[in-house]
Amino acid sequence: MDIIAWLNTNSGASQVVLAAVLVGTTIYYAFQTRKTVRVLEKQLETGVRPIIVVDHFHVADESNKEGTYCIRSNLVNVGTGVAVNIVAEFSYTDGGRFVGRSVNAIDYLKPDGEQSSHHFHIEKKAFEHLRYTEGHHGLAAELDCTVSFQDIHGSKFKTQQMVYYTKTDRKIAPEPGTLRML
User: Are 59 and 127 in contact (CB under 8 A)?
Assistant: First the structure.
C-alpha cells in the first residue's frame, strides 16, 4: 500500500523521469539508425563499383586527329557497376616519368563489356622517345598504365597495371599479377 500511495503523491515526478528515459532512448536509436543507413549506403556504392582491367591495346597508325595515334583498347570491367569517363595514362615504371595520356575519354564501359568507343587517341610524341630494352617480351618498353574512371555516383577511381609496349607488333599488353587499385 505504501508504494501505491507514494506513486499517487509523486506521479508528476515519476512521469517526468520516465519521459526523459523515453526521450533518451529515442535519441539513441535515432543515431543508431543513422549509422546503419550510412553503412548500407556505403555497401550499395561498393556493390556497384566498376573495376577496369587492361586486356591489351593496339597502336594503329591511322588517326582522325592530327598528331595522335589511334589506340584500339580492349578494356574489361570486372566490377559490377558501369564505369564512365575512362582515360588512360602511361608513365615509366622506374620513377614514374610521364609518357602520355589519352586526349579523349571513353564515355562508358558496362560490366558486360559494352562500351561507347573502343579507342583512345594519344599524342604521337608519347611513343617517339620510349626507352626499349630486350627481355622476355622482345624489344619492349616497360610502362605503368593508369586508367582513371568514375562510377555512376561520381566517385573517382584509378587502377594501375604494368604493361609492355612491344615495338615490333605495336601492342601494349599487361604483365599478369600487376593490377593495383589506387
Answer: yes
The whole-number pLDDT of residue 156 equals 94
Q: Do residues 73 and 102 touch, judged by C-beta distance below 8 A? A: no
Residues 22-62: tens digit of each pLDDT: 999 999 999 999 999 999 988 887 778 898 888 888 887 65
Q: Are 149 and 157 in contact (CB under 8 A)?
A: yes
Rounded CA separation 84/130 (Å): 29
So what's the pLDDT on residue 149? 94
The amino acid that residue 21 corresponds to is V
pTM for the whole structure:
0.74
Cell of 168: 615490333
Question: Of 34, 42, 115, which is closest to residue 74 (Cα–Cα)?
Answer: 115
C-alpha cell of residue 107: 564515355
User: What does R_g of the chain's alpha carbons equal in angstroms?
Assistant: 29
Q: Which residues contact 1 (CB under 8 A, 6 or more apart)?
A: none
Q: Please report, for residues 71, 134, 167, 171, the alpha-carbon distance to residue 138 in angstroms, rounded to integers and kept in the order given.
A: 20, 5, 8, 12
Helix (H, G, I), strand (E, B) or coil at 34: helix
Helices (H), the chain: 2-9, 11-47, 125-128
The residue with greater pLDDT, 11 or 117, is 11
Distance CA 64, CA 119 (A): 11
Alpha helices (H) along 48-175:
125-128
